[in-house]
Design brief:
mainly alpha, Non-ribosomal Peptide Synthetase Peptidyl Carrier Protein, Chain A, globular
């Protein structure tokens, strides 16, 4: 599925995970709010606890993983979440 386009398969997987997280986030926030790796999920996007749980459930389904609640508490930015999801996907493989 991934071709080594000069910057490595792992970089492509990371880019894909981050892009998918941003895609899912963009569905649960008002349009026009910019999202980047440094975006703080709760603080910058103003998600309430219900929206966060819906978002997490969507990620779990999309990546076929379980995200422990204690891990969610440690996630602040999209970058943090991307790293956590990458580890969970790798461990599930």
């Amino acid at each position: 599925m991934f071709r080594d386009g000069g910057y490595g398969i792992l970089a492509q997987v990371k880019e894909t995970v981050g892009a998918q997280i941003i895609e899912v986030l963009s569905k649960v926030i008002p349009s026009g709010i910019p999202i980047s790796d440094g975006t703080r999920i709760a603080r910058d996007l103003g998600l309430d606890s219900v929206a966060v749980m819906d978002f997490v459930m969507e990620l779990e389904e999309r990546f076929d993983i379980l995200i422990p609640l204690d891990q969610i508490a440690d996630v602040e930015t999209v970058r943090d979440l991307t790293r956590a999801v990458e580890i969970l996907v790798k461990d599930a493989a």
